[in-house]
């Protein structure tokens, strides 16, 4: 009777015939002929041992145990006193567990090609992280802009225990970021140069966090494109703006909430809403995103919870500073207005409508409409689309806002998003308030970048409809050209 293989052992007429450790994974019974084969055999035997120990630990192989499968428990009760020498017989509990183990793959002398590819891709990702970090720190050596001076003012106020909202108009966000500035300043020993590089390093680590989220959800290519994107590099390294921190907290919030919006708000989703409120307390980029989530949520009362929890967390952050800084909070946070350039409004809104609606009204209307258009998309997909709508239709575009939709661009590659990247990089290189390494005094081309971003957004949302319409047009042209009905 030929031997029968069960798991990693061969049984011949009830007797176990296990191969020698050095012969596991080798062809025939000949001993390994090279050090590479010996090393492969040793690694394969070590893997077998680990799998065996994990299997024994998983089922807790003890005779007469209630945790054992039925056939193992029956065998154990039939033979309760198993001698150690009989432990690996095929009708013993351990023998049945081993028989259930999947057959071990025979290793090749040169190793598993799939394993080699995984190792190579892992090293490539480490290389991407290294290159991206070095690029950000290199850009930081070229100086900084207006925002870094504002951070130094905030650090000085925090150092003597003052109220930031009461003492400077150059802070326009929630309290999370000035506490972060204070912590970085303490670690830097209040040294201006050290603080500059520590700030760039901290924000670079935030980009690493976004990199890993995109890697997990969208793959290595999207994560690498985000992390090596020149817009992200320049904004993080040179401008040191912290929009990425608010986006990262937003990503964490939707990962916590997941996509089950048919059920009431549970503890996990509630924690996600708290994290979203923390994102608003950092920088209120996602101030309309709770409405996007409420559109997905079932139940009127549950919708109210989804909207109100992040907003209440955001407002609660100002409570400790309200007594002395209420005027500054109202004037410099809630009533703050950036550069009113209105690129989208001037390029895409007809003149007739401009007489009736302001750029701010069009912005809010666009955010509300896309909330319903993206109702059936996942939470993380909706967040990325939200960043694109936020920037593309905004009435005020500053340089740092070009980095906000880069996660969307990296995960939705199309000709328009690629052109947005090119135009955005060119703008940062020539703009007088940007990186400006070419020595020009130009106002840049942010309007062109915004138009490409808008077209890329339209392509992502209505790609199927646009493609179908194009095909119908082509067929109609062919019919008209050929004269056939």
Structure, briefly:
With 485 residues, this protein is mainly α. It contains 23 helices and three strands. The chain has a three-stranded antiparallel beta sheet.
Identify the notable features of this structure and list them briefly.
485 residues; 65% helix; three-stranded antiparallel β-sheet; 2 domains; disordered N terminus; single chain; globular; mainly alpha
Instruction: State Rg.
Output: 31 Å
Order of helices and strands: EEEHHHHHHHHHHHHHHHHHHHHHHH
User: What's the pLDDT, averaged over the residues?
Assistant: 81
Strand order of the largest sheet: 1-2-3
Return residue spans where pLDDT drops below 50 for at least 5 consecutive residues.
Answer: 1-33, 58-88, 106-111
Count of helix runs: 23
The helix content, as a percent range, equals: 55-70%
Name the shape in a single word: globular
Task: Measure the end-to-end span.
Answer: 75 Å
Task: Count the domains.
Answer: 2
Total strand segments: 3
Q: Return the structural class.
A: mainly alpha
**Percentage of residues in strands:** under 5%
The biggest sheet, with number of strands, parallel, antiparallel or mixed sense and barrel status, is: 3 strands, antiparallel
């Amino acid at each position: 009777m030929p031997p029968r293989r069960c798991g990693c052992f061969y049984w011949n007429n009830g007797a176990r015939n296990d191969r020698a450790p050095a012969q596991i994974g080798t062809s025939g019974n000949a001993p390994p002929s090279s050090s590479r084969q010996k090393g492969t055999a040793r690694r394969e035997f070590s893997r077998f041992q680990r799998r065996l120990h994990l299997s024994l630990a998983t089922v807790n192989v003890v005779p007469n145990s209630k945790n054992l499968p039925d056939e193992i428990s029956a065998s154990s009760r039939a033979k309760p006193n198993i001698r150690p020498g009989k432990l690996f017989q095929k009708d013993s509990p351990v023998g049945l567990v081993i028989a259930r183990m999947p057959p071990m793959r025979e290793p090749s002398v040169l190793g598993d090609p799939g394993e080699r590819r995984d190792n190579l891709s892992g090293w490539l990702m480490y290389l991407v992280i290294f290159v991206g970090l070095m690029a950000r720190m290199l850009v930081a050596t070229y100086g900084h802009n207006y925002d870094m001076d504002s951070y130094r003012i905030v650090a000085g106020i925090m150092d003597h225990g003052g109220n930031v909202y009461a003492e400077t108009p150059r802070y326009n966000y929630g309290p999370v970021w000035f506490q972060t500035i204070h912590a970085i300043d303490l670690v830097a020993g209040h040294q201006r140069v050290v603080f500059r590089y520590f700030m760039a390093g901290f924000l670079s680590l935030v980009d690493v966090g976004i990199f890993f989220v995109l890697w997990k959800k969208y793959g290595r290519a999207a994560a690498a494109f985000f992390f090596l994107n020149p817009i992200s590099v320049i904004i993080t390294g040179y401008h040191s703006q912290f929009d990425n921190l608010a986006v990262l907290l937003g990503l964490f919030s939707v990962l916590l909430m997941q996509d089950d919006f048919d059920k009431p708000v549970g503890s996990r989703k509630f924690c996600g809403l708290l994290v979203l409120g923390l994102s608003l307390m950092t920088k209120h980029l996602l101030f309309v995103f709770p409405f996007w989530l409420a559109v997905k949520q079932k139940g009127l009362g549950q919708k109210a919870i989804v909207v109100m929890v992040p907003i209440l967390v955001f407002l609660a952050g100002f409570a400790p500073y309200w007594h002395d800084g209420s005027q500054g909070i109202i004037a410099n946070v809630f009533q703050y207005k950036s550069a009113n350039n209105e690129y989208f409004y001037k390029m895409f809104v007809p003149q007739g409508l401009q007489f009736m609606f302001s750029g701010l009204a069009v912005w809010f209307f666009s955010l509300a409409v896309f909330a319903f258009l993206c109702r059936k998309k996942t939470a993380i997909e909706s967040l990325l689309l939200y960043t694109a709508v936020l920037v593309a239709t905004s009435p005020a575009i500053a340089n740092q806002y070009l980095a906000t939709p880069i996660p969307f661009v990296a995960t939705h590659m199309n000709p328009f998003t690629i052109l947005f990247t090119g135009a955005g990089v060119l703008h940062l290189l020539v703009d007088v308030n940007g990186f400006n390494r070419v020595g020009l005094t130009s106002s840049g081309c942010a309007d062109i970048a915004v138009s490409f971003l808008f077209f890329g957004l339209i392509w992502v949302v209505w790609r199927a409809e646009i493609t179908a319409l194009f095909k119908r047009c082509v067929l109609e042209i062919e019919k008209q050209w050929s004269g056939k009905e």
